[in-house]
Amino acid sequence: MTVTAHLSYRKLEVSRKGKAKNSLFIKRANYISGYIIEIYFSDGTVKRVDFERFLQSAKHPVTRSYLDLKKFQQFRVIEGELDWNDLDLCIPLHQLYSGKVKHKEKIPASNL
Fold first, then answer.
1. Rounded CA separation 101/112 (Å)
2. Sign of the CA dihedral with 10 first, then 17, 44, and 81 last
3. Tell me, what DSSP letter sits at residue 108?
4. In angstroms, rounded to a whole number, what is the distance separating the alpha carbons of residues 108 and 87?
5. Cβ-contact 48, 37 below 8 angstroms
6. How buried is 109 (Cβ within 10 angstroms: 0-12 exposed, 13-18 middle, 19+ buried)?
7. What residues contact 89, with CB distance under 8 A and at least 6 apart?
8. pTM over cut 0.85
9. How much is the pLDDT for 104?
10. For the chain, how far is it from start to end, CA to CA, in angstroms?
11. pLDDT, position 106
12. Do the Cβ atoms of 47 and 99 come closer than 8 Å?
């Protein structure tokens, strides 16, 4: 089964001098198998990201609900980002670009 999400919006970043410059964004993404998605970035980089460990170790029930493969496959690329059901599942772009998805680390109170 092939599921493909395409970019419908080009994301631009405006510099302080008012000139537009391209920022990194997702152009498209394809479901490969299991919990693996192939992601195409605006700079030409292509990454295959495996979400299985991330989903299995999730504590939040909404995140864990994406262990259902049919639900997991229902992603889209919206405004240059990977989206599941209006940001039910939201992964930072830098993690997707690195190819490693992980849960937000808690900051110890002593570091605040």
1. 24
2. negative
3. P
4. 27
5. yes
6. exposed
7. 62, 63, 66
8. no
9. 73
10. 47
11. 56
12. yes
How far lies 81's CA from each of 73, 96, 109, in Å? Answer: 15, 10, 31
**Which portions of the chain are predicted below pLDDT 50?**
4-20, 107
- Secondary structure string (H, E, C) spanning 30-99: EEEECCEEEEEECCCCEEEEECHHHHHCCCCHHHHHHHCHHHHCCEEEECCEEEECCCCECCCHHHHHHC
Best CA proximity match to 24, nearest among 7, 14, 11, 37:
11
Residue position matching structure tokens 């997707």? 96
Give me 1's structure tokens: 């089964």
Residue indicated by tokens 């479901």: 31
